[in-house]
Amino acid sequence: MDLNDRKRKILQAIIDEYIGTAEPVGSRAISKVKELGLSSATIRNEMADLEEMGYLIQPHTSAGRVPSDEGYRFYVNSLMSRYRLGMEAIENLHLELEKRVNQLDKLIKKAGMITSALTEYTTFVTSPEQSLAKISKIDIVDLGSGRTLVIVVTQDGLVRNCMLSLSLGNDNSERLAAILTSKLSGLSVDEIDFEKIREIEAVIASSMTLSPKSLVNILNFVYETISDLSATEIYVDNVKSILKFPEYRDVAKASEIFGFLENKENLKKLIASGGDGKNINVVIGDENTAEPLKDCSLVTVNYSLDNRTRGKIGVIGPKRMDYAKVFASLDLISTHIDRILNLYHDDSS
Amino acid sequence: MDLNDRKRKILQAIIDEYIGTAEPVGSRAISKVKELGLSSATIRNEMADLEEMGYLIQPHTSAGRVPSDEGYRFYVNSLMSRYRLGMEAIENLHLELEKRVNQLDKLIKKAGMITSALTEYTTFVTSPEQSLAKISKIDIVDLGSGRTLVIVVTQDGLVRNCMLSLSLGNDNSERLAAILTSKLSGLSVDEIDFEKIREIEAVIASSMTLSPKSLVNILNFVYETISDLSATEIYVDNVKSILKFPEYRDVAKASEIFGFLENKENLKKLIASGGDGKNINVVIGDENTAEPLKDCSLVTVNYSLDNRTRGKIGVIGPKRMDYAKVFASLDLISTHIDRILNLYHDDSS
DNA sequence: GTTAGCACTCTTGTTTGTTGAGTGCTAATC
DNA sequence: GATTAGCACTCAACAAACAAGAGTGCTAAC
Questions:
Q1: Which nucleotide is the nearest neighbour of B60, by CA and C1'?
Q2: pLDDT for A45-80, tens place per residue?
Q3: Which of A40, A84, A259, B161 has the most crowded CB, counting CB atoms within 10 A?
Q4: B135-228 — its CATH code?
Q5: Is residue B348 scored above 60 in pLDDT?
Q6: Rg of the Cα trace of chain A?
Q7: Residue nearest to nucleotide D5 (CA to C1')
């Protein structure tokens, strides 16, 4: 059977309608679409065809049609019209993000919140992946009371810290920090392994007086703090929107998704599975590998720094989500973040 | 009417039962409680009395009784028996918290997760309030590419940072950091105001060559970063548990609470309203000022440092929550955190 | 090729009756 | 005088029966 232009238009109309109402769409409703100008009987015939082709599903005889996963897929790939975001929304976004530019973690968090405000769906964002980020400085602060703080700063401006319970005194702390900074700065997290640490250990042992035990202790913590850099944070926002959708009236289903979203491990797997490119990525219903998302759709986009993927922004909603709007929102926000992140880097080149 | 011993025992039995089942409790069920050894008819009479006294409510004739807010209140204050946590739970807690001791933020976050695991209710925790925390060090790092990072460290080991887009060079950064540290260390966030900053501005202007614009810029950001210290973070965990309770089968109600919990402003108000003492605090149903919590109970406890309240851990659940268990859990975890936090401070005194 | 018309299907909402848990009251019992 | 057995009564919850309505597929006419 041929998916001619008319069938495409009808399919589009059905899915548009279903996205709005969440109710099976009957032939009568589509016959009222002006541009088509067809009677319900004709639509019925076409609908039967579209069902046979796998794009529609009939929940039961005498109900209207509902898009199948394939239907949504085709809609996303070839049918849906572009969504135009309002100017106020765009300006608002500018304003909100600009304010946060001075704190990397918060910038990303805010980006997630803006996305959920734009789309009205649940969103998640990951903090920039730092495994290739270069270390800029290591600081060691003796806080007194037998506590010492190790602080690692990357060239992207991310800061991680770690406390250990021993006291070095201010002088020793400073000297140690200087050695560590000179030995490690410019290296990426991936380049620092136990061997490298051992090498530094030797240098310190020869130029400073520190008990071997303290030294090992400190270096372990430095190593741990550095490794901690590559641990991506994930922020989820607007989970409550899930309860808005009639498809989650069933509390058991909603609960399943909530549980899934509250477990960071699940989200990490989810993120790892997404693509790496610049484009927006969509996973519809059963295409999801994670069981609880089998009747959700997931739309993700990468943001990047130095043309390298650094993190993801994603939207999770019912399969009948407003894809056009989500695409437009993610597109806008990801390019915006890219611009902010790369601003400084471009300056230097 | 007199609330004699028998009435108390019956009330306790009813509430215990209701906490377990969430179903109105009938006289038959209570007549089966061995220790009482009373017939259902007697119980009925007593129940009628308890209702008249305001401790019980009958949803409709021919239904059993449900505790009123006053009933719960009396139960919490005078009736409930102590709950004994299992040894494995306690040991597990030790282990989990000990691992996190090296990162203040994470320690607190973990404490919330443990509480939600122990109680199976939604929990929240606030990061330690830092308005009285003393500044230990200020560091300024030139990241290159026209970005400079300001890092503030408190004596508690909390680290906050802020990025600004100007370049000072390494030497200037270090010198500036040294001046700021010497002028600000030992002061609490509250003690640093615009006047103080202005004073520092003068010192810097006289001893360094910096464009006045950069200087103002930097000091603004330093001030902002310091102010940011006193912004308490709130972590919420195990929200999904709310959907487990039959009282939230109604999605609209659940949604209301979810919305409430996702808005940090609401939570901040909630926290501000709680007591300041060492004791566990309970707010039952209508006693809550926040509308969406009117049929929830809220149990909070403060954790402290230097005998000063620093933050809160709280549990939110249905009014028929297992108060005994929640009390025991919160008690355990708060004393544990207190111990960990004060460990170092005790050393120094 | 399109559409009006019609019989048919199946969900949804409503009504009605039934069941059962639980009550309050009274009278008998300890 | 306190306790309890017994009984009539109430009301939510469930199920069966029914009506209404939305939507379909098919046929025959346009």
A1: D11
A2: 999 999 999 999 999 999 999 999 999 999 999 999
A3: B161
A4: 3.30.390
A5: no
A6: 26
A7: B41
Percent of chain A at pLDDT above 70? 97
Strands A56-57 and A296-305: unpaired
Name the residue ranges covered by the structural domains of chain A.
5-79, 87-127+233-348, 135-228
Distance from CA of A344 to the nearest CA of B (A): 5
CB of residue B37 closer than 7 A to nucleic acid strand D?
yes
Q: Which residue type occupies B243?
A: L
Q: Is the CB of B63 under 7 A from strand D?
A: yes
Which among B151, B156, B162 is the nearest to A151, CB-wise?
A: B151
CATH topology of domain A5-79: Arc Repressor Mutant, subunit A (1.10.10)
Contacts of A237 in chain B (CB under 8 A): 262
A92-106, A156-170, A230-244, A309-323: the lowest-pLDDT one: A92-106
Minimal C-alpha gap between A289 and chain B (Å): 22
Q: What CATH code would you report for B87-127+233-348?
A: 3.30.450.40
Q: Is the pLDDT assigned to residue B345 strictly greater than 60?
A: no
Q: Which two tokens stand for residue A25?
A: 């769409």
What is the rounded CA–CA span in Å between residue B151 and residue B140? Answer: 6
- Segment B58-111, tens digit of pLDDT: 999 999 999 999 999 999 999 999 999 999 988 888 888 877 667 778 889 999
pLDDT at A348: 40
- The pLDDT of residue B223 is 87
- For B:111-140, CB contacts with A below 8 A are 136-137, 139
Q: Which of residues 64-103 of A touch strand D (CB under 7 A)?
A: 64-65
